[in-house]
Amino acid sequence: MARGMNHVYLIGAIARDPELRYTAGGMAVFEATVAGEDRIVGHDGRERNLPWYHRVTILGKPAEWQAERNLKGGDAVMVEGTLDYSSWDAPEGGKRSMVKVKALRMEGMDTQPELIQDAGGGVRMGNGLNEVVVIGNVVRDPELRYTPAGDAVLGIGLAVNETWNDRAGNKQEKTHWIDVTLWRELAEAMKDLKKGDPVLVKGRLVNEAWTDKEGNKRNSTKVEATRVEALSRGAGTGNPAATSAGPRTQTASSAARPQTQGNGYGQSQDRAANTGNRSGGLDIDQGLDDFPPEEEDLPF
Q1: Alpha carbons 9 and 130: distance in angstroms, whole number
Q2: Structural contact between residues 72 and 14, judged by C-beta atoms closer than 8 angstroms
Q3: How far apart are CA 233 and CA 252, in angstroms?
Q4: Pairing between strand 47-59 and 95-108?
Q5: Rounded CA gap, 61 and 79, in Å?
Q6: What are phi and psi of 255, to 5 degrees?
Q7: CA angle at residue 99 from 88 to 28, to 5 degrees?
Q8: 65-101 burial, b for 16+ CB within 10 Å, e for fewer?
Q9: Which residue, among 81, 84, 85, has the nearest Cα to 103 in the 3D structure?
Q10: In the chain, what is the straight-line distance between the N-terminal and C-terminal CA atoms, in Å?
Q11: Which UniProt keywords apply (predicted)?
Q12: pLDDT of 3-46, one tens digit each?
């Protein structure tokens, strides 16, 4: 296993007033939705503004300190954090999972952001910052697919390892399961990746919504890669070194990605088999009611 790297950087607006609550065990939980737009030049040369809304969480005493800063909806913030994977048993049966941002740092900004109102009563920042860098191991052999329009797409699952020492000094370990989508030239360049290969991925964190076969609304957060580097198999003990293949970069922007419907192009094979029609991106102007998930859906 490669030694994991897991970094998220966001600059955006708080979409609506954040909340401080406490779990049944008394742990403080500060949650805010940070929202912005990525200005991307697409494969067709056109500039697009792609909205994103990411739930950011702070736990424990730092959550209370953050709440004392009295940030409110519309405030501009900078977030430094990590991707955090969680799963739980859904009340209707089966497993549910989500990826959110665990903030290590959240700072207000002395700037008046360009705010864009959405239909759900929230706001987002125009021209935000949305960047992810992770190192992990490929969890299954990816399959290169093509959309009806002829665009190559490669969906890979990454296992990103996190280790730390608890208060008793005991080593703890957690694996974060992250979905990554590669498009066009980048997808074709990385089609020979195999299960277990360590890779470095740089990209943007994106929202995706779809309706499953039972008609239930679902959403997910994944990384849309703009650069991928295959690392050597011995990358777990020292500084990771790129293979002789060198860096694989995506020259075509994600903005021009086609909608993925019916067959779940770009999704992991197991997820594609269990979903119905799927949008290529979350139309956040439908409102914030269904994204992020409601609090009662989250395990604490």
Answers
A1: 6
A2: yes
A3: 28
A4: parallel
A5: 18
A6: -60, -25
A7: 75
A8: ebbeeebebbbbbebebbbbbbeeeeeeeeebebbbb
A9: 81
A10: 29
A11: DNA damage, DNA recombination, DNA repair, DNA replication, DNA-binding
A12: 678 999 999 999 999 999 999 999 999 999 999 999 888 777 88
- Amino acid identity of residue 298, one-letter, is L
Cα distance between residue 235 and residue 1, in whole Å = 8
pTM for this predicted structure: 0.77
Nearest CA to 7 among 136, 98, 198? 136
Q: How far apart are CA 31 and CA 81, in angstroms?
A: 13
Bridge partner residues of 269 (DSSP): none
The identity of residue 24, as a single letter, is: A
Q: Which of 94, 153, 290 is nearest to 211 (CA)?
A: 290
Taken as a whole, the chain contains a residue count of 300
Secondary structure, 3-state, the chain? CCCCEEEEEEEEEECCCCEEEECCCCCEEEEEEEEEEEEEECCCCCEEEEEEEEEEEEECHHHHHHHCCCCCCCCEEEEEEEEEEEEEECCCCCEEEEEEEEEEEEEECCCCCCEEECCCCCEEECCCEEEEEEEEEECCCCCEEECCCCCEEEEEEEEEEEEEECCCCCEEEEEEEEEEEEEHHHHHHCCCCCCCCEEEEEEEEEEEEEEECCCCEEEEEEEEEEEEEEECCCCCCCCCCEEEEEEEECCCCHHHCCCCCCCCCCCCHHHHCCEEEECCCCCHHHCCCCCCCCHHHCCC
Q: Residue 277's Cα: distance from chain center in Å?
A: 21
Mind listing the pLDDT tens digit for each residue in 238-281? 444 443 334 454 433 443 444 433 333 233 333 333 333 332 33
Lookup result for tokens 């056109």: 46
Q: How far apart are CA 36 and CA 39, in angstroms?
A: 10
Q: Which residues contact 152 (CB under 8 A, 6 or more apart)?
A: 144, 145, 146, 183, 184, 185, 187, 188, 191
